[in-house]
Amino acid sequence: MSFNNDENKTKNAVTETVNPDSDRENIQSAVDDVMKKFDRESNTRVWEGTPRLVVDALLIAFSLFCMYVTLWGTFLEEVRLTSFMACIVFLGYLIFPAKKGEQKANFMPWYDVILMVVGTGAFLYFTFNAIDIIQQGSKFDTYQIVIGIFGILSLAEICRRSVGLPILIVAGAFIIYALTTGLTNPTFSGRLNYAVRLLFYSKEGILSTPVNTCSKFIVVFIIFGAFLERTGISDFFIDFANSLVGAFSGGPAKVAVISSALLGMVSGSSVANTVGSGSVTIPMMKKTGYKPEFAGAVEAAASTGGQIMPPIMGAAAFLMADIVNVPYSNIIVRAIIPAVLYFTGIYIAVHVEAKKEGLLGIPKEQLPKMSSLVKDIYLLIPIVMLIWLVSTSTRTIQTAAALSIVAAIIVSFPNKKYRMNLRGICAALAVGGKGCISVAAACGIAGIIAGTITMTGLANILINGIVAIAGNQVIIALFLTMICCIVLGMGVPTTANYCIMAATCAPILIRMGVPTLAAHFFVFYFGIVADITPPVALAAYAGAAIAKADAMKTAINATKLAIAAFIVPYILALNPAMVLIDVSGPLQIAGIVVSSLVGIYGVSTGVAGYMITNMNPLQRIISICGGLMLMYPGTPSDIAGVVLVAIVFIWQKMSEKKAVAV
After folding, report:
1. How distant, in Å, are the alpha carbons of 148, 436, 599, 658 from that of 642?
2. Residue 384 CA: distances (Å) to CA of 98, 222, 267, 466
3. Which DSSP helix (H) or strand (E) runs through 579?
C-alpha cells in the first residue's frame, strides 16, 4: 500500500478542501487501499453485472426489512431476532470473502455456499420453530444441539471476516473456560449442551441485549448515516471548519479537529472517519509544515472522538441506554460536556504544536467564505430534526431516525451533484444494509461473551478480585479498569468491548461507589481510546498510512494528543456532575468545565513541552501536576492545581519578555 504524496497530489488535496466540487479520483485509490488494510469491512467480494444487481437488491431488501420490523413489526421477539441474524449470516457470506485479497469477480467458493446455507438454516430453524423451542424447556435433542453449534460457528466466521480475530480470541477463551472449569456439570457433553442451549436458544447469549438493541435501534441509525453522507454534508463540514479556523496558526490541523468532531455526528467508526476526512486534511497539514507522524496522529485522535460525539455516538451508546435502562436522549445530553472537553483538549494540543513549530495557517484567499456556506446550511436539517425529535421524546428513536432519513432525501434535491433519485436512494439502502453486517456480527459475539461470563459466574470472581486489590481506593479500581478496557479494546470493536466491560468492569466501579451511568461512561470511553493506544491502534495506523509516516510514532503522538481522553473519564467517574448526576446547579457545572479545561491545558502543554515558549523539565512537571490536581474533585485540589498552572504561565511570560529584550 502506498500513498502518492507528490506536489500535484497535495495541491489537488488543497483545492479539494476549499472546493468540494473538485475531483477526488486522484486520491480515491489510495484511500481504498488504506481502508482495505485497516478496516475489514472494506474487504468485500467483487460482484459485477447481474450478480451485483442481485446482491444490491438483497441488501436493499434487508434494509427495508429492518426498517419495517423496527417501525411496525409485532413479531415474537425470538422470531424477530433469529430472522434478523439469519439475514446477517446469509448476507455476510455473500459480501465478505474468507481472506483478504480475494478479488476474483463473481466468484464464491463452494465451501462458502455450504457455510452460508448451513448457518442461515440454523437460525431459520429457530425462527420457524420458536414457539416449540420456547415451550420445550431444557430438554433438547442432540440434533438441536448440533444445529446450535452450527449457528454459533457460522456467526463466528462472519465476525472473523468482517470484524477480525481479536474479539473471537476473547470469546473463545471464555467458552473454553466455561467448558473446562467454569460450569459445574460433571460431563463434557452436559456442559456443552448447557452452553449451547444458553448461548443459542435463549436470550442470554447471541439473542441478548446487544443483538436486540442492534436490530431495534442501531440498524436504522446506520441506514440514516448512509443517507446523510450522500447529501454532501461531509464536504459542508470540512468547508465550514476551513472557513472557521483555517487561517489560524496551524489551521489545517484545527480544521481536522473541528471537521472530525462534526463528522463524528454522522459516523461512529474511528478508521472510517480517519480515512474519510484524513484523505483531505492530512496532506493539508503536511503542506503547512506538520510532521507526517503528527499529521496522521491529529486526524486519528480527532476521528476516534467521533464515537463519543452526540447525537449518534456509535453503536455502543444505544447498548448503554438499554443496559443502564436510561432513555437514549438522556445519554446524548449527558455526553455533551465530555465530548466538548475531549475535542477542546486535542485543539489545545495542535495549537501548542503549531506555536512551537511556528506554523502558519492557510492563506485566506484559498479558503471558502462563510457567507457562501450559509446557502448550504439546510443540509443540517436532518441532524437538527433527529436531535430535536430524540431529545424531546416527540417520537420514538426509530421513528425519529426514519423521519430524518426522509429529511436527508429532501435536502439532497437542491444540489444536482448529490440529488438522490430512486437510484441514489437504493444505493444508500444498500450501503446501510452492508454496514449493519459487521456491527450485528460483533453484537452477536459480544452476547456470547456476556452470556458465558454470566453462566460461569466469572463476573463475580473478577469483581471480588479487583475490589480486594483496590481496597477502598476508587482511583486504583479506575486505573485497573482502564487497563482492562484498553487491553481488551485492542482490535476489538467498541460495541463488543463495551459489552464485555459492562458485564465485567462496570459492576466493579459501581461496587466501589461510582454511580451506574458514570461507571458505564468510563468503560465506554476507554474502550474507544484503544483505537489510538499502542501497540494495536488501528485508527492511528490508518492515519499513518495516509501520511506515509511511521505507524508506531503516529500512535504515540495520537495518544499524547488525546491526553484529554485519558483525563475526562476519571473526572466524570470521580465527579459525576460532569455527566449531570447529582448536579446542584449551573454554577457547579460551569466550575467543573472551567477546572477541567484548565487541567487539560496544563497537562497538554506539559506533555508538548511548550506553553508560551519552550518549557524546561521543571516547568513541564509542575504544569502536568497542576493539571492532574484539577482532575481530582475538591476545592483544595482545584486551588492547588490552578496555582501550579498559573505559576508556570507567569514563569513562561517572564521568559518570553526576557527573550524579547535580548
Report:
1. 60, 47, 8, 24
2. 41, 17, 16, 43
3. none
Q: What is the DSSP string of 150-204?
A: HHHHHHHHHHHHHT-SHHHHHHHHHHHHIIIIIS--SSHHHHHHHHHHHHHSSTT
The rounded distance, in Å, linking the Cα atoms of 292 and 550 is: 8
Return the ∠ at Cα 379 (arms to 338 and 399), rounded to 5°.
70
Instruction: Give the separation between CA 628 and CA 31, rounded to whole angstroms.
Output: 39
Q: How far is CA 282 from CA 17, 255, 554, in A?
A: 11, 10, 12
pTM higher than 0.85: no
589: cell is 457545572
3-state class percentages of the chain: helix first, strand second, coil last, to nearest 5: 75, 0, 25
Convert the pLDDT of each residue in 573-585 to its tens digit.
Answer: 988 888 888 887 7
pLDDT tens digits for range 585-616: 788 888 888 888 899 899 989 988 888 888 99
**Residue that the C-alpha cell 454522522 belongs to:** 266
- The helix/strand count (H/E) of the chain reads as 33, 0
Whether the pLDDT of residue 1 is over 70: the answer is no
**Cα 586 to Cα 153, 528, 589, 599, 635, distances in angstroms:** 52, 29, 5, 20, 17
Residue 620's CB: how many other CB atoms inside 10 A?
19
Spell out the domain ranges in the chain.
7-26+219-418, 40-211, 583-662
**In the numeric block, which cell numbers belong to residue 459?**
463476573
Residues 82 and 123: their CA atoms lie apart, in Å, by: 5
Mean pLDDT of 178-206: 91
Q: Give the per-residue pLDDT at 267.
A: 63
Q: What are the grid coordinates assigned to 212, written together?
A: 436486540
Amino acid identity of residue 128, one-letter, is F
Distance CA 207, CA 365 (A): 56
In 358-457, alpha helices (H): 370-373, 381-391, 397-411, 422-456
Q: What phi and psi, each to the nearest 5 degrees, are found at residue 266?
A: -100, -45
Q: How far is Cα 641 from Cα 626, in angstroms, rounded to an integer?
A: 4
Cell reading at 211: 443483538
Mapping DSSP onto H, E and C, the string for 313-381 reads CCCHHHHHHHHHCCCHHHHHHHCHHHHHHHHHHHHHHHHHHHHHHCCCCCCHHHCCCHHHHHHHHHHHH
Q: How far is CA 462 from the centre of its chain?
A: 26
- Rg (C-alpha) for the chain, rounded Å, is 25
Angle at Cα 532 formed by Cα 531 and Cα 536, nearest 5°?
A: 70
Determine contact, residues 206/153, Cβ cutoff 8 Å: no
